[in-house]
Recover the amino acids of this structure.
C-alpha cells in the first residue's frame, strides 16, 4: 500500500480497467465513453437517483458533439434548444452589448450554444450505460477507500464533485482563482398559458442594486440568478415579481443559495503509481456566468477516455492535465470576467463614464475549441477540432482517423482508418484526428 493508501502492487490482473467515483455529468459521460472503448468499468454513486434539480442549463457545440459521440445524437434534438445568445443590459433593460448569432450554420456539426434541463440530460446519459455489459453501475453505493479501489481497477477517476473525497484522500489542495459571491438560483416552470413577456435571449442585468442573470431555458423552464448581499434572506417570489412572474403564472422548481467560486485542484493526478485522476468539479469549479462548468467536466471526460483506452495509457495520461488545465483556467478567467463585467458596467453607468466593454474576440463563437491549452504545438489547424459536416462524426466513430480529401490517401505502415471528407480538411490533403476530434497532425 502506498503512502496515500492506494494499492500499488502493480501486478496481478484487476477486475476492472477503470473505477469512476461519481455519476454526475462528468462521470456519466466518462462511463459512456469507457463503455464504447470496451473498458471494463465500475462506477460508484452514493445517490440512487440523478440530482433532481437543474444546475447546468447551457452547453456548447463541442459538448453536444461529445454527447453525440456517446450515441445520443437523435435524443439530443429533443432535450436541447438552440440558444439565441447573451446580452448585457442596464437596470432598465436597455442593451449595452451582445454575443449573438449562435443559430448560424454550425462549424462543429452542432450549434454554438444550447439550453437544456439538466435532469433530462442526466437521465439520457444514465440510460446510455445500460448498453454495456462491461460497465457496472453501483447506485446508492459510497465509493470504498483508495486502497480497495486500487485493488479493483487499474485507473481510478474521481468525478465526485466539488467536495471530492478522492481529492481529499490524495491530499490535493485547491488553488483559489479569486471569486467568491453569494447568489440565489431560482428555477421556475412557466404555466403553458402564462402571458408574461420574458427575453428570448440570455440576459445579464448590470444593476448595482441587484446584478441578475436570466436564462430562457428549454421548454417552459426559466432560470434566474440573483446576487445576494451577505446574510440576505432569500425571497424568490419577491425577486421574480419584478419580472412579472408570480405563483399565478409559474411553478417554483427550486430556489437555492449558492456560493459561486473559482477553484482549481493543484494537481489532477496522484497515487504512488499515478493511477488516480480527478475530473469535472473535483478538479475545478468556476462561476456559472458563461455556463461552462459542466462543459469543462465533459471535456475532461472526452480527453481522458481515449487515453485510458490506449495501450500506452500511462504515458498519454500525462498530457491530460497538461492540455486540460490551461483550457479550464482560461475558461474560468472568462467566467470571472463575465461576472465582474456586471459590476464594472453598472459602475460605469452610475458614473456616466464610457463603458469598459470586452474585447471583440470574446464574442467569437468558436472560442471554446481553440484555447491555448489545446495548442498541440503545430501551426493551424493542429490543436483545433476537425469541422463537423453532416455525417462525418458517425464515420469517425470512437477511434483515430485520417480525414482526407481523396480515397487514394494512405500512410505506409499505418493502420488508422481513412475517412474521405474534403469539406473538413482545412485545405490540407489529410488531417490526423484524435478520438476526441482534435487535429493532431496534417499531411500535405
Ligand atoms: C447555479 C449553477 C448553474 C450552473 N450552470 C451551468 C451551465 O449552464 N453550464 C455548465 O456547463 N455548467 C453549469 N454549472 C456547473 C455544473 O453544474 C457543474 O460543473 C457540474 O454539475 C459538475 O459535474 P460533475 O459530474 O463534475 O460533479 P457533480 O454533478 O457534483 O457530481 C458528482 C457526483 O459524485 C457523487 N459522489 C460524491 N462523492 C461520492 C462518493 N464518495 N461515493 C460515491 N459517489 C459520490 C455525487 O453524489 C454526485 O452525483 C452550474 C452550476 C451551478 C451551481
Amino acid at each position: 500500500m502506498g503512502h496515500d493508501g492506494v494499492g500499488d502492487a502493480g501486478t496481478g490482473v484487476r477486475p476492472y480497467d477503470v473505477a469512476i467515483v461519481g455519476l454526475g455529468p462528468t462521470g456519466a459521460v466518462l462511463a459512456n465513453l469507457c463503455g464504447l472503448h470496451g473498458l471494463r468499468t465500475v462506477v460508484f454513486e452514493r445517490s440512487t437517483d440523478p440530482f433532481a434539480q437543474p444546475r447546468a442549463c447551457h452547453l456548447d457545440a463541442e459538448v453536444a458533439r461529445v454527447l453525440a459521440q456517446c450515441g445520443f445524437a437523435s435524443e439530443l434534438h429533443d432535450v436541447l434548444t438552440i440558444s439565441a445568445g447573451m446580452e448585457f443590459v442596464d437596470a432598465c433593460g436597455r442593451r449595452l452589448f451582445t454575443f449573438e448569432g449562435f443559430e448560424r450554420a454550425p462549424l462543429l456539426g452542432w450549434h454554438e450554444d444550447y439550453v437544456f434541463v439538466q435532469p433530462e440530460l442526466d437521465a439520457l446519459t444514465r440510460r446510455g450505460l445500460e448498453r454495456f455489459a462491461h460497465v457496472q453501475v453501483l447506485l446508492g453505493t459510497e465509493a470504498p477507500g483508495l486502497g480497495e479501489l486500487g485493488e479493483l481497477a487499474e485507473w481510478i477517476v474521481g468525478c465526485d464533485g466539488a467536495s471530492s473525497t478522492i481529492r481529499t484522500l490524495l491530499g490535493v489542495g485547491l488553488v483559489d482563482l479569486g471569486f467568491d459571491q453569494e447568489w440565489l438560483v431560482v428555477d421556475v416552470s412557466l404555466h403553458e398559458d402564462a402571458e408574461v413577456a420574458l427575453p428570448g435571449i440570455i440576459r445579464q442585468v448590470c444593476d448595482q442594486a441587484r446584478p441578475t442573470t436570466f436564462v430562457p431555458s428549454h421548454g417552459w423552464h426559466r432560470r434566474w440568478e440573483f446576487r445576494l448581499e451577505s446574510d440576505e434572506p432569500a425571497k424568490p417570489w419577491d425577486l421574480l415579481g419584478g419580472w412579472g412572474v408570480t405563483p399565478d403564472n409559474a411553478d417554483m422548481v427550486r430556489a437555492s443559495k449558492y456560493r459561486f467560486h473559482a477553484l482549481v485542484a493543484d494537481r489532477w493526478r496522484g497515487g504512488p503509481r499515478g493511477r488516480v485522476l480527478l475530473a469535472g468539479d473535483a478538479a475545478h469549479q468556476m462561476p456559472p456566468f458563461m455556463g461552462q462548468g459542466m462543459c469543462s467536466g465533459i471535456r475532461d471526460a472526452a480527453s481522458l477516455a481515449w487515453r485510458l483506452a490506449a495501450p500506452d495509457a500511462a504515458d498519454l495520461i500525462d498530457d491530460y492535465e497538461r492540455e486540460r488545465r490551461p483550457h479550464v483556467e482560461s475558461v474560468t478567467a472568462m467566467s470571472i470576467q463575465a461576472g465582474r463585467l456586471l459590476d464594472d458596467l453598472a459602475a460605469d453607468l452610475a458614473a456616466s463614464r464610457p463603458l469598459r466593454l470586452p474585447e471583440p474576440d470574446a464574442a467569437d463563437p468558436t472560442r471554446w475549441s481553440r484555447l491555448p491549452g489545446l495548442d498541440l504545438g503545430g501551426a493551424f489547424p493542429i490543436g483545433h477540432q476537425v469541422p463537423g459536416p453532416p455525417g462525418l462524426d458517425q464515420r469517425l466513430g470512437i477511434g483515430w482517423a485520417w480525414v482526407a480529401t481523396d480515397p487514394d490517401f494512405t500512410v505506409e505502415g499505418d493502420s488508422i482508418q481513412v475517412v474521405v471528407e474534403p469539406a473538413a480538411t482545412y485545405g490540407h490533403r489529410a488531417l490526423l484526428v484524435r478520438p476526441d476530434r482534435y487535429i493532431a497532425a496534417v499531411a500535405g
Q: What stands out?
A: Residues 16-79+115-175+262-363 form a domain with the FAD/NAD(P)-binding domain fold (CATH 3.50.50.60). The radius of gyration is 22 Å. The mean pLDDT is 90.
